[in-house]
Design a protein that fits this description.
Radius of gyration: 18 Å
Structural class: mainly alpha
Largest sheet: none
CATH architecture of the largest domain: Orthogonal Bundle
Order of helices and strands: HHHHHHHHHHHHH
Number of domains: 2
Shape: globular
Number of helices: 13
Helix content: 55-70%
Length: 269
Amino acid sequence: MSLDGEAILEELRRLYDAYVDTYRLEDGTLPRMMQLKRAHTGFVVKNAVLIADGESFTPLERETALAAALLHDTGRYEQLKRYNTFKDSESVDHAVFSHDIVKSSGWLAKAGVSRPDAVLAAVLCHNRRVLPGGLDPVTLAASQTVRDADKLDIFRVLEHEIANSDWRKDGRAFWNLDAKAPPNPEVVASIMSGLPVDYQAIRSLSDFVLIQVGWMVSGLYYATSRNACAERGHLAFRRDFLHQLTSDPAVDRVCDLAERVLSKGGAAR
């Protein structure tokens, strides 16, 4: 990236951090769930760098993708403050919320972002089941990067929460879903068919985890992303955790399919 591109991103980070600081408590700390999201954003940006390098992005593609990665979850802080949940169906669509906050903030103009329209579009679309058609190459690269980078870190977040929190008592990070209920056959059928899962079909913690396995089947756009997923062992973790939640044989059917897809590598483009 050019020096101008680095300077643009540094200024954007400064503006974003100043915004997040407004949610800090009197002792200077962020509430735990907000800190979770702030850490998530940092990892998403790192994943976006990995993708941009691995896919040989142009300087403009790289600047736009990294800016969108930084800003994609801007609305999460206000969402949690107002509604005490990250579950969009019980509050607001966080992508729309993030888009509106970023657009009204003026940060993109202040930082001199080259393609503010592409950044805003990538933020708006990052949680959609399917991207809209007709996106120009820069917007498409930014959108696909954020979607992949976000998923790669959501893998990490789930593993961190399971290892470091009493998730059976505080399940807000997992939408307070039933940990004992079996997988919904509708979720399993969608994944096995390579189709996006309707989030309204999520009934259990098993469904929540299986959806992430489904991303490994058909939700990671770039070869760099699939390779990172395989190298980090995200599938093995989910297979083991799902076996702790349920004895349903659908778990191994879905995980075996994901393993075959990840082992192939290659590009989806």
